[in-house]
Amino acid sequence: MQRSTRTPPKEQDVFGTDWDYLIVLDACRYDAFESVYEEYLDGDLERRRSPGSATPEWASKTFTGQHDLVYFSTIPFINSLGIPLCDLRWGASCDYDWAAADHIDEVVDLWREAWDDDLGAVTPEAVTAAARERLDDGSDRRMVVHYLQPHAPYLRRGKGRKLRQIRAGVTDAGDRSRGTATPDGDADGYRGVLRSVGDDLRSRVESALGDSRLAMQLGMLVELDVAALADLRTDGVAAVLKRYHEENLRLALESAADLIEDLDGRVVVTADHGEAFGEQGVWEHHIETYIPPLVDVPWLVVE
Q1: pLDDT tens-digit readout, 98-152
Q2: What domain of life (predicted)?
Q3: By C-alpha distance, which of 210, 206, 212 is closest to 278?
Q4: CATH assignment of the domain containing 275
Q5: Residue 4 lies in a domain
Q6: 232 in the Ramachandran plot: left (φ > 0), alpha (ψ -120 to 50) or beta?
Q7: Which residues are 296's β-sheet partners?
Q8: If you placed Cys at 292, which of 19, 90, 102, 296 could pair as Cys (CB 3.0 to 4.6 Å)?
């Protein structure tokens, strides 16, 4: 089995490679993938260099032309609403004038249609079910199937507070563009720009802390439930979050492998970006932060 070396990785170059189905694992570190993938999939693995260190940057630099494909999206930044990234309310600066609907023929908004309110996320099983349903309908179009995991929230370890906020802001932007938002920002059953007390507190603390390490750690720790505190005390933040990241990755790989059994064509498994656990003082993932844990991603051509 081929494995990458420590030589500089090739660029990811999604559309410079032939594939029929592209499986995207959100925030998947290369080293985590390399250590477990053979338990689920066979193929030739390479380390590739992503063009972005967070989903908005990756998407805007990857989907630059007109692409005739179906994109199953679990992340609100890639949506069918036609709102440029720079107009979305998602808690971080972004001046990218890019909207998925301008470049991708069909976006299936799983972040809206298959959302699990209890988890604050879209589960891997829901993604596989949606893609398989399209296959059952006889579709032979190229597909990008974007699993949210191993991105937080870490399933069974907490709930997606941050994603709820992002999702609400994106939904509100779409409703405002259509003129359907209500005065309090709660339209079509979504919270819009309203936030829970916890979300509001997190936003204020992050604002006060700025870009410090503590602020970035908080962005990850806020997703965990109280039961995780025992692990954090015993093993430390970085070790615990890496373990939870691997658990999420295994859940995604199990579900993706189940889907791949039904795919007739060339399948590539990759990631939009990675995740940092304190390397070079960086935690989580942020746009335009080009360190290996964030931009070195797997590229597996499935056998």
Answers
A1: 999 999 999 999 999 999 988 889 999 999 999 999 999 887 899 999 999 999 8
A2: Archaea
A3: 212
A4: 3.40.720
A5: no
A6: alpha
A7: 49
A8: 296
